[in-house]
Records
---
Amino acid sequence: MTSQTTSDALDALTSQWEDALSELDPSSVSIIAQLLEGEATYGEVRMRVEESGAGWRVGVSTDARSNALPLVAGLLTSNGLDIHQADIFTIGAASRPTTPLLRRQPPRRPPPSDFGWRRRRRPRSQPATRGTQRRVAMLFDLSERSASIPGWDKIERDIRTAVRDSLSGRTESATSTVIDRFAEALRDAGQGGADQLPIDIFTDVESS
């Protein structure tokens, strides 16, 4: 990544989200710009992890059609991390689609929760063309709920697998990855898990 490509991504991001970006600190804006810089291949998942105070700041970006939000949030929490703040952005970015564009699904509301979701109003409209891929960037502020977490390599691998499965239409496989991690967490905590299942994972994002 070069300073020029990061600058181009920041310009594109600012053109669509200028008001919302003014609420974020420079470090957060930089992470989002780096996640969205350059061309993205179909199904590509990008992730950045940085220490932030006593916790972590994690950024994830991928194709906006992947239904990634509940998968990423579920995998973070099931691995012993508490989400204190989440910011979600979408942006139109040039790309070379390797498969036909999928039918767009209507947006839904974020799931109810006790942490601070900040909804972003829809950005300035962008013309939809075959050469344009809408990408989503998610930024999470986290703290460790347990004494230790499995390790970021494992968490990142699970996130990439689940998001790619979702984007490829393997919804059941993507959901199973999240449920398996919750079951492991319950077992490790000595709570068993048989009486905790089934677990439903859903997204409910209100149209803006």
Note: Helices lie at 3-21, 26-36, 68-78, 152-167, 171-188.
---
Amino acid sequence: MPDPNLAVPESNVPDWLLRYNDRRARKYEHRAEQLRSVLPGLRTRRTRRTLVVGLVLTLLLATCASVASFWFITATWIPFLVGIVGSIVFFTLLRILSGAFSDAPANALDELQLTQRNAARSLAFMLFVPLMLTVYAITIGLSFRDWIAGQTMAALAWLMISGTLAVACLPDILLSWWMSDDPDDEE
């Protein structure tokens, strides 16, 4: 299916862009076929939702540790690292089990998948902007001092890392939660 959100009218799309999109779709389908046999017993809605809960909890741990690091940086670096590494592990497993169609090209998806993917991406972007504006506002507010402690800058960096990671994971979280069991996998 062609991408309905493409800004260029379909009759004016350059050949190189069509070739690029076709190549992306072929590579995505090839990669999806390779990963289809990985962890076949875990490709259920229940497993995906369990991974989503684990991912959200580890992201929450990283975010809470980054907020607490404004006051206790020496005590929070271990929970922060555990949260970040745990999030990456859960995120990778979730993408393997869900087919990673949040990054799939439009020609590789059907209409329902494309609509869900676009909705999840839109929601993630809508959350990303105010989140980053809040962190930037804190940074600007602190910049009116003559000096800023290194601990404060580290805490802001940790907050930006955990917030960006959380919002980057959001499309996969939503799509994995919405996804039903694949009837082909049960046979």
Note: DSSP finds five helices and no strands in the chain.
---
Amino acid sequence: MIVAAMLVLAAGVRLFGAWCWRFNLNLDSGVVALMAKHMAEGGSLPVFFYGQAYMGSLEPAVSAFFCKVFGVTGFAVNLGTVFFSLLLVLVVYFWARDIGGYKAGIASAVFCIIVGPEKYSNTLKTFDISSSLL
């Protein structure tokens, strides 16, 4: 029950972050958006990120699915990241629970949930207490 409530909270936080960053002009986000757009329009499924010989294209493929469902928007592209970050909360919970018990799993998952929209960027703008805890 607590884990389900944490996932709902995590989804809310991440959806808010996806909404806040829907107009992101970061070049890395632009590559994901372009790949998702091309895949959603029926283009090929590339193995790697455009212009790179590393980093697979699974996240842009999931984002392309959301672009097909909701239309090609910045918010829809960000939903691929939301999906994988929710999976991360579950992985961290189960991993910490196996190592340290139920309370460790809950505490670890809470640290994955407590972030503000400014932390959704791939670079930290400021250093604060939440950054030091991570």
Note: The chain has six helices and no strands.
---
Amino acid sequence: MASTAIPQQPPKFVLDEFIALALSNTPAELHPYFESFRTLYTKKLWHQLTLKLFEFFDQPSAKPYRVDTFERFVRDFEGKINQLRLVEMGVKVSKDIDNPQTHITFLTSLLSRIDTKKSPEAHVLLLATIAHAKLVFGDLEGTKTDMDAAWEVLDTLEGVDGGVNAAYYGVAADYYKAKAEYAPYYRHSLLYLACVDPEKDMSTEERLVRAHDLAISAFLADTIYNFGELLMHPILDAFNRTPHEWIKKLLFTFNEGNIGKFEALAPLFPQEVSDHVLDDERRFIPIT
């Protein structure tokens, strides 16, 4: 039951066989979930079944069984449930697949079964997730191709689910970070933060890294002339009481145009900033 192999075409589904196998191969604490699956599936209560599946997938002890449950159970009725919720489910369980090629195969297989016109948000979320997987595995060209395809659909939508926007802007920011393109990273990273709750959705370390990268990109981008939006963002609080708190002070000092304060902070600059010069007392210009 814990295998992560992805069947190309699942065998004919037999509910009782699936439940019996699950009950024999999973810990007793998970058995009530499978009994609920049986009842809700039989009654065709697809919304309630979706909620119960998310509850199941959130259980730490369910981790070894999530991919198998998705592929052998959810796939049987995936066309009957909300497609965005289906993709969210698929994205969640895909994180359990360690093999890069199998991971991407799982996601692209799901993508092929999503109707873009009927479920554009689901399509965008899945494309953004595939783009992120390719980025992690070092395929920058593939990442950009999928990002562009996702944006082509996303740009036509209104009232988009926050998680969908976050997935797109998150992978776009990561892509531009990998390419060391400071201005696009800065813009997309701020858009990503507008879609999430940093306190709830990001760890302390993630907030600090994001704040650091935003600050450095603000200094080094050649088309950012005002840090106002960043200075008002609570993400900068991640610097408080850390060895990097000087960066926050520098941002505010730099934005004020106070050269005296700036020079007083200069000895604190690490190599990443001190390798650049101050141009017209406002801009850092990277050495090319």
Note: The first strand starts at residue 277 and ends at 279.
